[in-house]
Design the sequence.
DNA sequence: TTTGTATACTTAACCGGTTTAGTAATTCGG
DNA sequence: CCGAATTACTAAACCGGTTAAGTATACAAA
């Protein structure tokens, strides 16, 4: 059996307290005793049990990331990876580990319940969500990414509505009138009250506003909204379906506007397979500006949002909350980062 | 203050034990008592402290991934992301969370010491590594990925030597004789004994064997080995430096053989910047076959190794060890997955 | 009526550390 | 030489749960 502090104490002929001091605060005991204790520690290969320590110190040295999907699926979206990398920056700075918490028993809240973390970051959880309630009960500080800016929660996000507006305005400005919008999927739909996809709604609102300026709407003929999983595969599948079902073909969309670059790059795959040229035959626009967007062929038109910074900002806020920043001002607790429309070569005026 | 089980017990007029039963094994108490206890639980917003529970149950419900670099850097390599996704498959299946453990205080072992996990997966740690010793002391089952197949450790990997040989043989077969090898960097180099990069050595051995068949070696004129960070940026920087320092230019390499696809794609960037065409002016080969390798322009020649499967296999082994599989056969504990040379369009015969 | 056996609950020990409060011995100031 | 302060250490409480062992009551069987 693995040795405990008690074993060390007995063998060294001292109390548990003395062993604890030797390990954590050697200045409090004599040089001689210290050496004796440490000799036994080495002899028995003693390593303190971090869980037991936590019970009293109440610090785990870990941040958590609550995911709305299984890890495998979530990481399929490079944008999520960017967010994690941002959180990673703070982990390095503060010597923390990062725990990814996928839904358990199909529920996000179940993961939150079991989380061994000092603080949490959530993606896309609304302020009225049951998870918020639970975390407050557990007294675990948390920050939402892409949530909602209310008094109730600390949030980091962007102006999704405005960003979406600018993207759609660009596409409409090129002359497109038959457009397929590839929308984010509500990731976890086990229970109706788990309402993710605030982001989805806000971006749809932005698209609508741009369309409205031309007297159009998301329901107009030629305009359609199709859900797609946030991955290359998801985009590929959705666009393949759209192209296959467009009959007659001259009523097919002339532009694809995706809510994630990964989905847009999936559209590239679908086009390649059926021999459509981008942007000559079909314009494609994305959202996020993931690292591979600029290097794609053709380079992808998209809205840049700073994924790493989002993650880093959220983690920084969690750490601030942990450091006792209960009295932080509202504006210090709500960060809205900038977005930028990046026009590259995947969008052009329609042929006809 | 957050309520504890004691508070619930007092308020409900029962013992702590009864509360514990109500929460974990309701069948053991009467319907009536159960309701009374749960009413108080709801009233006081009680959520059990998972850390305290762990002290006796000894199950955290978490796997750990020991990273040789900070999270931010590690995730820059899509291949690492694939491995994580593989681990994620098992996490979903077994309802586990996944903790990423970057080095702490510059040392991997320090992260291993503090890890709150049931089992660990390490990347690239050798069997003689101090981390191995520590984990044995802590009685934490662990599996290495890309480590070494010895009795001492449970490992999942591929035949790196053979894979590297086939890749180099392909490049040499096309006629290339001036080749730059972009090698993995020893990730953590705080201490000399933290010897990562077993993979690097084995792949170099494979390259050497292929070269030796033509009477060449890694030290021959025209052949050079340059370290590059495992990321697009790292590959870009390394290749830019190589191209800039090749004077006269007609002694520049005609082929780049990278040990990671991310690095090879970085070479694409460098070539694009200086106007070199791939493969006309320069052949580029990678290693891993990350998801974007096939979609790159031109599609990347590489050696496929199954990243997701590696992660999934490692996680499956950890879980088996956790389930008490101490008596598993050696072959059951060492998995060697297949690789495959994938020839695409980024390699061709040299011009001259 | 006695014995045996569920049932429903409690007491107390335990997990493995940290920390508070306290004791004994030594040093120091006046 | 006495009281105060310091040093070195320990006993016991504590963190917040789980669980083995034990008790009291009700009910069934002998």
Sequence:
């Amino acid at each position: 059996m693995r040795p405990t502090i008690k074993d060390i104490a007995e063998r060294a002929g001292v109390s548990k307290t003395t062993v604890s001091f030797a390990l954590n605060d050697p200045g409090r005991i004599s040089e001689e005793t210290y050496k004796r204790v440490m000799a036994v520690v080495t002899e028995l290969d003693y390593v303190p049990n971090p869980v037991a320590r936590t019970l009293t110190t109440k610090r785990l040295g870990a941040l958590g990331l609550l995911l709305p999907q299984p890890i495998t699926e979530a990481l399929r979206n490079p944008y999520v990876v960017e967010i994690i990398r941002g959180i990673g920056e703070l982990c390095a700075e503060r010597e923390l580990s990062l725990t990814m918490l996928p839904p358990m028993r199909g529920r996000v809240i179940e993961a939150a319940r079991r989380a061994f973390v000092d603080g949490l970051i959530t993606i896309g959880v609304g302020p009225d969500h049951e998870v918020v309630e639970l975390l407050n009960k557990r007294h675990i500080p948390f920050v939402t990414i892409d949530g909602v800016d209310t008094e109730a929660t600390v949030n980091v996000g962007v102006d999704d509505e405005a960003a979406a507006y600018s993207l759609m305005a660009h596409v409409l400005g090129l002359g497109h009138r038959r457009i397929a919008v590839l929308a984010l999927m509500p990731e976890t739909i086990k229970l109706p009250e788990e309402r993710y996809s605030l982001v989805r709604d806000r971006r749809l609102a932005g698209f609508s506003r741009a369309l409205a300026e031309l007297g159009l709407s998301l329901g107009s003929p030629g305009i359609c909204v199709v859900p797609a999983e946030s991955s290359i595969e998801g985009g590929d599948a959705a666009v393949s379906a759209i192209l296959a079902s467009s009959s007659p073909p001259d009523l097919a969309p002339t532009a694809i506007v995706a809510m994630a670059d990964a989905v847009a790059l999936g559209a590239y795959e679908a086009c390649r397979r059926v021999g459509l040229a981008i942007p000559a035959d079909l314009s494609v626009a994305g959202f996020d500006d993931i690292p591979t967007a600029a290097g794609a062929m053709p380079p992808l038109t998209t809205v840049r949002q700073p994924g790493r910074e989002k993650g880093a900002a959220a983690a920084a806020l969690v750490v601030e909350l942990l450091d006792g920043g209960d009295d932080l001002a509202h504006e210090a607790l709500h960060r809205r980062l900038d977005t930028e429309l990046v026009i590259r070569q995947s969008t052009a005026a329609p042929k006809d």
The mean pLDDT of chain B is 91. Chain B touches chain A through 56 residues (CB under 8 Å).
